[in-house]
Batch of 2 targets.
Target 1
Amino acid sequence: MITASHAARLSLPETDWRTLWREAVTDPQELLGLVGLGHLADRLPAADAGFAVRVPRGFVARMGQGNPQDPLLLQALPQLAELDVVPGFATDAVGDMAARSAQGVLHKYEGRALLIASGSCAINCRYCFRRHFPYGDEMAAAGQWRKALEHVREDSSISELILSGGDPLSLATAKLEELTRGLAQIPHVTRLRIHTRLPVVLPERIDDAFIRWLGELPLQKVVVLHANHANEFDARVDAACARLRDAGATLLNQSVLLRGINDDADALAALSERLFAAGVLPYYLHQLDRVQGAAHFEVDDDRAQALVEAVRHRLPGYLVPKLVREVGGEPSKRPV
Ligand SMILES: *Cc1c(COP(=O)(O)O)cnc(C)c1O
Ligand code: SF4
């Protein structure tokens, strides 16, 4: 139910998203305290296991109290297991991360070019390859846009530009406007896709200025969200999704299969149902990139397939995500 004060909060720019971004929890002890687990501080690894803690307060508010296994908490809280060195888990799991950040544009798949628009994220997900590439915001500079757009302009086979990162919506809307002004001069690009976790972890980012920009874009628009568990949704996330749809975006979701977080058929089915309730279709369920520090999240392929099979038996086909893995050098994501 939406109360009057709630509605006011949804429509008024009472707290700018950048302020909420800055006010994120960055101290793991504080995070434990906020969810009633202050007594577990001795289970934290020293120095955040080499990857800073960052989680917006609105996302913390969706975590359960007193539950060390909470599926949202586990995505953000450093654990001792991150210090384990496990064979097969590298610091450059996808193989091309260095090239990604230097060049800024990745054109591996036919018809689609992916732009590393920003290296920043509002949340630091413990399972992310980004833990080894704390690259900055260098892509936001106008000169870098120009180089990336030049590549896209010169290749008429590219019909879809994907903004990825990091999180491209970490950029100011004015920066996004700057990019799409350049894009408007490239007739063969007909679709803009945005890969972002912000509508889920910091829904305030989907503010009036952003919606105006998105709504006025003369392109087809796809926004691929990233949520891993039904509990990540609340009324504010629903409102952000509704605004994105009203601005003409098709909404999809990608998740990562994570041991202890969403690796059971009930959790996956509930996620699909919750996505659909928010007007979002499940797209990909990714097998984890094998990065050092994330081995404790891995689910083996046999179990992963069995889980998706169980979901397939329960839900309509359009609510079953495709189970995939990213393999360097392949022409697409590889179905598992
Ligand atoms: C994942 C990815 C894409 C998008 O692939 P889709 O299957 O179209 O979602 C495009 N380019 C690169 C480099 C990617 O890693
Ligand atoms: S939001 Fe995406 S890119 Fe950023 S830390 Fe999380 S998984 Fe990685």
Note: Strands lie at 105-109, 112-118, 160-165, 191-195, 220-226, 249-256, 281-286, 322-325, 334-335.
Target 2
Amino acid sequence: MISEERKSEIRKNLSEIFDNIEKAKCDDRKVVLLAATKTRTPEEINFLAECGVTHIGENKVQELMDKYDAIDKDRFTMHFIGSLQTNKVKYIIDKVSMIESVDRFDLAKEINKQALKHDLVMDVLLEVNVGGEESKSGVEPDKALELAREIAALPGLRLRGVMTIPPICVDVEKQKEYFRRIVGIFNDISSAEIENTKMDYLSFGMSGDYEAAVSCGANIVRVGTGIFGARDYSKKN
Ligand SMILES: *Cc1c(COP(=O)(O)O)cnc(C)c1O
């Protein structure tokens, strides 16, 4: 159950976020607000549809599977946004419409294999480790174009753009530097005009920096805490 109080809190947060996105845009492009729904219940997630949210993203395969049946799938487009083990692709291939976190060729090959098996073409984003942090997933920036070409050669995938999780910066200007770097990589791949790609998505920006991200050119922002409040991991696992 989700209380009226909780509903109005989520509704209020969302209306502020939608407003802030509009204000941060410096053109008339469409920006997708993707709700990052880890640790949230299906009831909370389904409520988002009533507040104008069209896209949701899960970052763990098991959690996605656990919630899948209870999620109102007719009302949402679901993306996978977390790091993905090759042997788990088979569980999500027919459940999500985009995998945002493709960062290596063996993962792309497995997505290709599973996609062909299901007679579908999976939209994917190339995840780039724009800060070069060892702890983070993502392809190194100077290998991004090469991996994009390799992905494009696989018929079961269609490359739609780039995604990144930059290092956490207190300084907005520093953060924007990372954002401009991912935009540069996006532009390099786009201008290479690789066949079988349709480069139209830039996914970066989370609760703390989605406005800066939008002002730098993001058209998917992935927001969790900003919509729902702080996560409580103690209830899970
Ligand atoms: C959780 C998550 C987000 C959103 O993080 P918040 O700080 O809660 O907005 C964005 N992207 C990915 C990949 C995530 O796992």
Note: Residues 153 and 196 are 7 Å apart (CA to CA).
